[in-house]
Amino acid sequence: MELDLTKAKEFYSKMLLIRRFEERCVEFYSKQKIRGFLHLYIGEEAIAVGIMNALTPEDAVLATYREHGQALAKGVSANSIMAELFGKQEGTSRGRGGSMHLFDANTRFYGGTAIVAGGLPLAVGMALADKMMKRNRVTVCMFGDGAVAEGEFHESLNLAALWNLPVLFVCENNRYAMGTALNLTESETDIYKKAASYKIDSKQIDGMDVVEVAKAASRAVEDIKDGKGPLFLECLTYRFRAHSMFDAELYREKVEVEEWKEKGPLVVFQKRLEEMGLWSEMDVKELEDEIKTIIDEAVEFAENGTLEPIEDLEKFVYSEVSNG
Amino acid sequence: MDNTITYREAVREAIRKAMREDERVFLIGEDVGNYGGSYAVSRGLLDEFGRERIIDTPLSESAFTGAGIGAAMNGMRPIVEIMTVNFSLLALDQIINNAASMLHMSGGQFNVPLVIRMATGVGNQLGAQHSHSLEGWLSYIVGVKVLTPATVQDAYDMIGLALSDPDPVLVFENSLLYNSKGSLDTKSTPIPIGKALVHRPGKDITILTYGINLFKALEAAETLAKDGIDAEVIDLRSLRPLDDETIMKSVAKTHRVVIVDDGWKSGSISAEIMARINEQAFYELDAPMARVCTLEVPLPYAKHLEDAAIVQVDKIVDTTKKVMVQS
Ligand SMILES: Cc1ncc(C[n+]2csc(CCOP(=O)(O)OP(=O)(O)O)c2C)c(N)n1
Questions:
Q1: Whole-prediction pTM value?
Q2: Bridge partner residues of A235 (DSSP)
Q3: Where in chain B is the domain with CATH 3.40.50.970?
Q4: Which of residues 78-137 of A touch B (CB under 8 A)?
Q5: ipTM higher than 0.85?
Q6: B126 — pLDDT class (breaks 50, 70, 90)
Q7: Among A76, A126, A130, B142, whose Cα sits 20 to 30 Å from the Cα of B251?
Q8: Is B168 on the interface with A (CB under 8 A)?
Q9: Where is the Dehydrogenase E1 component domain (chain A) (predicted)?
Q10: B95, B115, B79, B70: which is closest to A128 by C-alpha?
């Protein structure tokens, strides 16, 4: 993976899009246009952008309830995501999913799973289907460090390794599961070591550095497509915001958050570009304007969206196709 | 073509036929391959279809059920076998939060064409962790369909029906039925999902049941006939969706109802059926409805205790007579 000006712009603007999109979400949450649980990804943008860079449109992604960033990076439109958050028919899930359940068939984005670790078995099955049908594509499964304590994590890793499946497990280790620090819940806090115990090639990387994530992801996806079976990336990161909009953040010190902010993905990337002499070539103001336009448009799209008619409420409980 | 085979063979033949006709179909579960299925349903299939399509799994109900869901979302037609319904509890998260919710949660984008087969049933002295009938309880879940084949014909037909359905279908095979024999017509058109079947027409009272209790109910009906009571016996076949139409039609004809259900009374499928009859056909009733269920105890091991806890023919006979007397 070559980091030239074009790639640099792409990475920076994607991370910035996620950041600004979510900041706007906070605004609309305060205005009560967005309701329900809202989990922000701010601070973790480098992971989504770095991982998705390695994928083709044919590759599938499964994520958790903190998935705005992954969805945007996979190419789900800001319009449809915002419309979903506003509960509109034009949303990714016709207003039935909300922030925690974004789904998009066009970009092969499979959610949006709010049961911690619940997506891992699905990813195993998606990859199994690809292997059985001899389709050379990858399923990426993203989850938090909290998922590691669930049985499904272990069951799924075992199956993926046993069956040599084309799946990339990406653990976004932001050190907390809601308010509980990893060292209070895990005897082994180096998560990649758990994956290794299932004979899965696994690495711990700096999840704040989009370039490092992108490189590791490209290598991993290439290896998986070469038939090397499942791979595991533990991306060390931090969320700058509360767990959700309801979290009073009693479990961590403000200084810790501030320290991490200095290591944030946008800051780190700017420094890297400065060192490479590319930063001066970037017109950040222009990028900000472009992103503002995209988000303004998304908000307008969402505002103008329609509400799913109540008569359609019971649609999609079962498929409409009938087999007689 | 008409021939007599066992319920077990009927299920196996249906799986074999589906696998021959559609390369997307595969069987996955504990001991389905080398062992031949814990109830020997899949015996021989490994030889015919190989390890790629008859997949032995570790003891990981949640992961292999979830893998079935994921594979279904990605174009396959998996048949997941769960050894017994008791173990499906470890996969309930996947069944409810993923399989049953996916289509709706994704705004209609991702359906889950998945079949989950489970053995169910009571009466083998297996104790509380191996012999419950939770199909009524699982039929509470919106987004899945629940089938309970009682006959050899249904054991065969329902696998095909479930596989061609675009949504997740749970098929409950009563383990005590596997050795039962019946005739199978592989050329007949299957009765669709959601349709109940009047097995024995009658005019005095309706006995609603499903699964193995169909045979207990039919036996009871023969005894009752000797006392001049002409019972109509209905095999529900499908617990979700329930066939309200057939139920209400029968109630309108006999005006009396007994429900025979392998589940515990409280919150059971029989409770649901009573509620529906109350809502839809109350004025047709000539007597309070009654039901025969499993006693509200975790199933005991000792034979006499187990027998006392579960549905028996004489309990059906007694209950039916009581209802007749009340009207
Ligand atoms: C099975 C399950 N248990 C509990 C919860 C409640 N819950 C929601 S998010 C969360 C923390 C998960 O932390 P982690 O996996 O590290 O992800 P993060 O929120 O840090 O992105 C918990 C406990 C849940 N959603 N699912």
A1: 0.93
A2: A172, A205
A3: 4-183
A4: 91-97, 101, 103-105, 110-113, 115, 118, 120-130, 132-133
A5: yes
A6: confident
A7: B142
A8: no
A9: 14-305
A10: B70
B97/A115 Cβ within 8 A: yes
What residues line ligand 1, using a CB cutoff of 6 Å? A 66, 114-116, 144-147, 174, 176-178, 243
Ligand 1 geometric centre to CA of A149 (Å) = 10
Fold topology of B197-326: Rossmann fold (3.40.50)
Q: Sort out which chain A residues have CB atoms less than 8 A from B52's CB and list them.
A: 132
Residue A39 token pair: 């989990």
Query: Can you identify the CATH homologous superfamily of domain A5-296?
Result: Thiamin diphosphate (ThDP)-binding fold, Pyr/PP domains (3.40.50.970)
Q: What is the CATH number of domain B4-183?
A: 3.40.50.970
Task: Identify residue A2 by its one-letter amino acid code.
Answer: E
Query: Running DSSP on this structure, what letter comes out for residue B176?
Result: G
CB A122 to CB B98 under 8 A? Answer: yes
pLDDT digits (tens, 9 = 90+) for B195-251: 999 999 999 999 999 999 999 999 999 999 999 999 999 999 999 999 999 999 999
Does position A321 have pLDDT exceeding 80, yes or no?
no
Cis ω before B201 (30° cut-off from 0): no
Nearest to A129 among B75, B97, B98 (CB): B75
Candidate from A24-28, B288-292, B298-302, B314-318 with smallest mean pLDDT = B298-302
* CB-CB under 8 Å, B161 with A127: no
Helix (H) or strand (E) holding A261: helix A254-262
Using the predicted structure, report yes or no on whether residue B132 has a pLDDT greater than 90: no
pLDDT of A2 > 90? The answer is no
Task: Show me where the domains of chain A are located.
Answer: 5-296
As annotated, the residues of chain B forming the CATH 3.40.50.920 domain(s) are: 197-326
Tell me how far apart the alpha carbons of residues A222 and A210 are, in angstroms, rounded to a whole number: 18
A235 residue type, one letter: C
User: pLDDT tens digits for A195-224?
Assistant: 999 999 999 999 999 999 999 999 999 999
Task: State phi, psi for B23 to the nearest 5 degrees.
Answer: -70, -10
Atom 9 of ligand 1, nearest CA residue: A178
Show residues of chain A in contact with B107, CB under 8 Å. Answer: 91-97, 103, 316
Residues of B serving a catalytic function are 61, 130
Rounded percentage of chain A residues whose pLDDT exceeds 90: 97
Nearest atom in ligand 1 to the alpha carbon of residue A148 is 15
